[in-house]
Design brief:
The structure is a single chain. The chain is α+β, with helices and mostly antiparallel strands. It folds into two domains: 122 residues, Uridine Diphospho-n-acetylenolpyruvylglucosamine Reductase, domain 2 (2-Layer Sandwich), CATH 3.30.43; 358 residues, Cytochrome P450 (Cytochrome p450). The chain is 52% helix and 8% strand. The protein is built from 19 helices and twelve strands. Strands 1-2-3-8-5 form a five-stranded mixed sheet, sandwiched between helices. A three-stranded antiparallel sheet has the order 4-12-9. Strand 10 and strand 11 form a beta hairpin. The longest helix has 33 residues. It is globular. It starts with 9 loop residues before the first helix and ends in an 18-residue tail after the last strand.
Length: 508
């Protein structure tokens, strides 16, 4: 339950208020750094004794930014009820996400979460992997990469935006899961010269919605919306296109359910229609939320993983050894559980490049965070996964290095048998949220990424054509700015592959 600050002893409050108060940064500082918020926030939090800072903005309550795991746990679990998303957050995304599960609080959120939870049982997960993910990889992704690799072996190098490949794959997979419909966005290499209208609409709506949240003065975007000009007009047009697309699928599904009532769909849309009690607008908004989350988060994480592997070939070699030794394609779901180094690579990627760089709540009432930071009713309280992954106090002096070994108990060379992944607090590593709102699709996302990455790494070498450092772009979900341009080569089979640590000790 919500803890009224009056229940906190005066001496406790007094001590922290005057001895551990986070540094305040005025609006002018925010404005001057608005184009580099990620690095600015990270620098400020690294210097803060409490890993918390306060940012002042015009025409808005103060913003509290924290990378302190105790504060994150307090917000997301201990006093969850006092930190809803809040109206300032939901207003920003209202036009795009409406009343979907990621943009609501209270009873509406509870109802949608309960309904969606049936889609993520162990049985549903296993069935989804076998029928959707495996099929998409074998019939779409691998043939596409094969055709590109063929060209690189016989003629000039073919360059492809690998981020776009993974985003189209992710869209096809999540639409099949959510809608029971395959939009077939991932096709042959010639199709990449053409824009897919529905993908462009989702991209535009997500980008403009994210920029709303970063606008120094919120009245600016609200005025543009009222006048229906500029980016707000473009947002309206894109959302209308998305609504028409999803609504048409809903209507068609309703007809089929009535006509073929004995057939039970495994997708989320069919479940919502059959359950009843959910109106068409809520179904549409919920589906849009799941498509956004399922497409962009996994494709973002995998893009950064392949980027990281290309810059750390010793890590890639160890991963190739593990996959060559243990990845059996005839029993994909079960063997993925044993790919410990693959799991560590995925975790390490999302530590440095989380799909969602920050997440904000708005205090329902006055409060005090565990580090002593006072919170007033209406304040925005933001936890910052991107910065948390770069805190020396959380991850050590090598925090900026891509080092999957940090996810194992003990030091390299101490393993005698199978690897064991560390238990890491979700409040130190909140890439899948945590507490009551922990991501329902966490298990699904992990298995999907594992299978896609394993299938690619086992067969192909992905090499960037540019060597400058990639830029992390924090929209609703993080992208690699400008895409990830790569060439693709077939990987030579490894004879007698054996997983070893950095000192040459056998791991598996």
């Amino acid at each position: 339950m919500y803890k009224n600050p009056k229940t906190i002893t005066f001496s406790y409050y007094y001590y922290y208020l005057f001895h551990n108060h986070p540094t305040n940064y005025p609006f002018i500082s925010f404005f001057n750094n608005r184009h580099r918020l990620l690095s600015w926030y990270t620098d400020l939090l690294s210097q803060s004794p409490s890993q918390t800072v306060v940012i002042r903005r015009l025409t808005a309550p103060k913003t509290i930014i924290t990378a302190n795991p105790k504060n994150v746990e307090y917000m997301l679990k201990t006093n969850f009820i006092n930190f809803p998303k809040g109206k300032p957050f939901t207003d920003v995304l209202q036009d795009f996400l409406g009343t979907g599960i990621f943009n609501v609080d209270g009873d509406l959120w509870h109802a949608q979460r309960k309904l969606a939870s049936h889609q993520f049982t162990s049985r549903s997960l296993k069935q989804h992997v076998k029928t959707t993910v495996v099929e998409a990889v074998k019939t779409k992704l691998l043939p596409l990469l094969d055709s590109i690799a063929d060209d690189t072996a016989t003629a000039e190098v073919v360059v492809v935006d690998f981020q776009e490949v993974l985003r189209r794959l992710g869209f096809d997979i999540v639409c099949k899961l959510s809608l029971g419909f395959d939009p077939c966005c991932l096709r042959d290499k010639q199709s990449f010269s053409h824009v897919v209208p529905i993908l462009a609409a989702f991209d535009t709506a997500a980008e403009i919605s994210a920029k709303r949240a970063a606008t120094p003065i919120s009245a600016v975007w609200k005025l543009k919306k009222f006048l229906r000009i500029g980016s707000e007009k473009l947002l309206k047009d894109s959302v209308n296109e998305i609504h028409e697309y999803i609504t048409e699928i809903i209507h068609e599904r309703k007809k089929n359910i009535i006509k073929f009532s004995e057939k039970t769909g495994l997708d989320l849309l069919s479940r919502m229609i059959k359950t009843g009690g959910v109106n068409e607008e809520q179904i549409r908004d919920m589906v849009i939320s799941f498509i956004m989350a399922g497409r962009d988060t996994t494709s973002s994480a995998m893009t950064w993983l392949f980027y990281s592997l290309s810059r750390n070939t010793h890590v890639e070699e160890k991963l190739v050894n593990e996959l060559g030794f243990g990845f059996k394609e005839n029993d994909e779901f079960e063997t993925l559980k044993e790919m410990k180094y693959l799991q560590a690579c995925i975790c390490e990627t999302m530590r440095l490049y989380p799909p969602v760089s920050w997440d904000s709540k708005h205090a329902a009432g006055d409060d005090v965070l565990p580090d002593g930071t006072p919170v007033n009713s209406g304040d925005r309280v933001t936890y910052f996964p991107y910065g948390m992954g770069r805190m020396e106090r959380l991850w050590g002096v090598d925090r900026l290095e891509f080092r999957p070994d940090r996810w194992f108990d003990g030091e390299p060379g101490e393993f005698a048998g199978r690897l064991k992944l560390k238990e890491v607090s979700p409040y130190k590593y909140p890439v899948f949220h945590a507490g009551p709102r922990v991501c329902l699709g966490k298990g699904l996302a992990n298995v999907q990424m594992s299978y896609v990455v394993a299938s690619i790494v086992n067969r192909f070498e992905i090499r960037p054509v540019r060597f400058e450092e990639a830029v992390y772009l924090p929209l609703l979900t993080a992208h690699m700015e400008g895409g990830f341009k790569v060439s693709i080569r077939r990987r030579r089979p490894i004879v007698g592959a054996m997983c070893q640590d950095m000192k040459g000790h056998e791991l598996i």
